[in-house]
Amino acid sequence: MYLRCYIDQEKSGTWYAACIDLCLYAPGDTPQIAKENLEIMIKDYIHDAHTVDKESHDYLMSRKAPLALRLTYYKIAFIYNFFKLLNIGDRKNKNYSSTFQEIIPIC
């Protein structure tokens, strides 16, 4: 199972990671902490959907994020891939918005 996720920074300076396929959002002081928080949240969410809340499983596993968050994902994906394609920007600096896929094994 592939989940579309991204990392961005709020105007307040707080970083957050969001999963647009499950409508999950996790803040953090750094991009890495936000991503780690989201990864934990995703694993717990999927575990609960498969075990604790089986009657709502289908709804929980197909719960999409609001349009604004989905559009943010695609904007970041476009910009990130555009700069990557042109080899522009310092990607060694980890303080930037980016997208990532969370791969969840389903047993």
Q: What would your notes on this structure say?
A:
By secondary structure, the chain is an alpha+beta fold. It has one domain. It is 41% helix and 22% strand. It has a four-stranded antiparallel sheet. The chain starts with a strand and ends with a strand. 20% of the residues are buried. The model has no long low-confidence stretch (mean pLDDT 84).
Label this structure with key terms.
alpha+beta; 107 residues; four-stranded antiparallel β-sheet; 3 helices; 22% strand; 41% helix
Tell me the layout of helices and strands:
Blueprint: E1 2-9, E2 15-19, E3 24-28, H1 31-50, H2 57-60, H3 67-86, E4 98-103
Antiparallel strand pairs: 1-2, 1-4, 2-3
Q: How helical, in percent, are the residues?
A: 40-55%
Low-confidence stretches are none
Biggest sheet details? 4 strands, antiparallel
Strand order of the largest sheet: 3-2-1-4
SS-based class: alpha+beta
Short description:
By secondary structure, this protein is of the alpha+beta class. The protein has 3 helices and 4 strands.
